[in-house]
């Protein structure tokens, strides 16, 4: 049975190549940022003082005040670049869904998960960044009070797996698409990526529990 893929075929040109390259660079930077961000926030597990010291360093050096908006702009730019290939129209979504079920191709399903998580992250990630950057300085006590408020606990329990799934799959797809992982290494890397994602989700959950038990 022939598969009609004409609605997804794009004429290759230099501009598209540059945009793909820029999408990869912004994506790679966001992957590194999110993993670093997780580790830094998880410093609260070593004590409130550890997190406060790190937060104070970033604010005293203006990395939070300047870096925050830069990350926000990178986040928005990456979404706009990726949106070029997202099927927004109903007929396109129906076609890609049918093709995905027909092809039984794991990487296609991973891309669909990325698209789904991206829509959630766009909204929830923007809320998170706005809330943090408009309420500086960052402190462990302030973060704990926010999470213990109820709404934010549910908010982060949703956002955490969405971000880590998106970032983990993005890491895998960048490595494969741009040739960092050769074909013979792909099978092993595909097993490693879910483990890495699970580790970061676990770190995030432990950190949330720590905030829930921190005196405010």
Number of self-contained structural domains: 1
H and E string? HHHHHHHH
Query: What percentage of the residues does DSSP assign to strands (E)?
Result: under 5%
CA-based shape: globular
Gap between N and C termini? 63 Å
Biggest β-sheet, characterized?
none
Query: Into which percent range does the helicity of residues fall?
Result: over 70%
Mean pLDDT score: 80
Number of helical stretches of at least 4 residues: 8
Highest-level CATH class: Mainly Alpha
Class by SSE composition: mainly alpha
- Which superfamily, in CATH terms, is the homologous superfamily? Fumarate reductase/succinate dehydrogenase, transmembrane subunit
Briefly summarize what is shown.
With 216 residues, this protein is mainly alpha-helical. Helix content is 78%, strand content 0%. Helix 1 crosses helix 3 (63-82), helix 1 (14-41) packs parallel to helix 8 (183-213) and helix 7 runs antiparallel to helix 8 (183-213).
């Amino acid at each position: 049975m022939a598969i009609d893929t004409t609605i997804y075929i794009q004429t290759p040109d230099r501009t598209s190549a540059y945009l793909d390259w820029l999408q990869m660079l912004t994506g790679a930077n966001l992957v590194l940022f999110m993993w670093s961000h997780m580790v830094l926030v998880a410093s609260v597990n070593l004590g409130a003082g550890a997190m406060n010291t790190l937060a104070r360093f970033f604010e005293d050096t203006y990395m939070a005040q300047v870096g925050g908006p830069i990350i926000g702009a990178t986040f928005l730019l990456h979404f706009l670049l990726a949106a070029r290939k997202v099927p927004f129209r109903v007929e396109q979504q129906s076609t890609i869904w049918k093709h995905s079920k027909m092809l039984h191709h794991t990487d296609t399903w991973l891309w669909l998960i990325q698209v789904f998580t991206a829509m959630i992250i766009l909204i929830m990630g923007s809320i998170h960044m706005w809330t943090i950057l408009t309420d500086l300085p960052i402190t462990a006590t302030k973060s704990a009070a926010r999470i213990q408020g109820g709404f934010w606990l549910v908010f982060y329990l949703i956002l955490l797996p969405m971000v880590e799934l998106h970032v983990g799959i993005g890491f895998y797809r960048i490595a494969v698409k741009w040739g960092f992982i050769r074909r013979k290494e792909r099978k092993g890397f595909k097993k490693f990526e879910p483990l890495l994602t699970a580790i970061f989700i676990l770190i995030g959950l432990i950190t949330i529990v720590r905030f829930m038990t921190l005196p405010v």
